[in-house]
Amino acid sequence: MRVFLNPGHALGGRPDPGCTNPRCQLRECDLALTYGSLCGKYLEAAGCEVKLLQSHNLAGESPGFPCVVDTANAWGADVFISIHVNAGGGRGAETYCYSTEGAGGRLAACIQNQLVRSLAPIDPGYRDRGVKAHPSFCVLRNTTMPAVLVEVGFIDSDDVGLLTLHGDGIARAIARGATDYWQ
Ligand SMILES: [Zn+2]
After folding, report:
1. Please, which domain of life does this record's source organism belong to (predicted)?
2. Count of CB atoms within 10 A of residue 164's CB?
3. Which residue range forms the structural domain that includes residue 56?
4. CA 17–ligand 1 middle distance (angstroms)
5. Residue 16 Cα distances to 7, 22, 76, angstroms
6. Residue 148: which of 28, 8, 1, 10 has the closest Cα?
7. Which pLDDT belongs to residue 125?
8. What is the CATH number of the domain that holds 138?
9. How far is the CA of 183 from the centre of ligand 1 (A)?
10. Which residues make up the environment of ion ligand 1, defined by Cβ < 5 Å?
11. SS (H, E, C) the chain
12. pLDDT of 62-115, one tens digit each?
């Protein structure tokens, strides 16, 4: 299985760090890259081919940066996983797909289930916010393979403990979700 991993927002935070929590110096771009890099190592250990790209250009809108969807489509990825961190003070994980019917929906359900099964036992406040269709997300709309965008938790809530201390568990859960889907 060829897995394309897209940690959200701009590499190094310039020009777009994603959401931030100034109180604890956390930036979404850094957390997403940490989870994506670890996830890629677990997937490679499981025999997958992995390509990772974090870039400010998702679908051609910022030509000075490498284009995420073009790279994934040209590489012939079997699955596409965009990794993000939420903001707004809620708790838990939610995973978006183009449509809850079909392969993208199944991939989303596999990743969502693994995240909740892995993290809720550590912190019961971590909620299963579910799988949701969001066809207007450009990484979901413009990719040619089953694609998901996973929001692993909230940067500005009590999820911060999980996000900072259990990044390895988050990465493993995403990797297991992808391999569950492929079986
Ligand atoms: Zn984001």
Report:
1. Bacteria
2. 13
3. 2-182
4. 9
5. 12, 15, 27
6. 8
7. 98
8. 3.40.630.40
9. 29
10. 8, 18, 84
11. CEEEEEECCCHHHCCCCCCEEHHHCEEHHHHHHHHHHHHHHHHHHCCCEEEECCCCECCCCCCCCCEHHHHHHHHCCCEEEEEEEECCCCCCEEEEECCCCHHHHHHHHHHHHHHHHHHCCCCCCCCEEEEEECCCCHHHHCCCCCEEEEEEEECCCCCHHHHHHCHHHHHHHHHHHHHHHHC
12. 999 999 999 999 999 999 999 999 999 999 999 999 999 999 999 999 999 999
Nearest partner of 37 among 50, 26, 25, judged by Cα: 50
Name the domain count of the chain.
Answer: 1
Cβ contact 159:126 at 8 Å:
yes
Question: How many angstroms does the Cα of residue 12 sit away from the middle of ligand 1?
Answer: 14
Instruction: Tell me which DSSP letter residue 133 carries.
Output: E
pLDDT tens for each residue of 6-23: 999 999 999 999 999 999
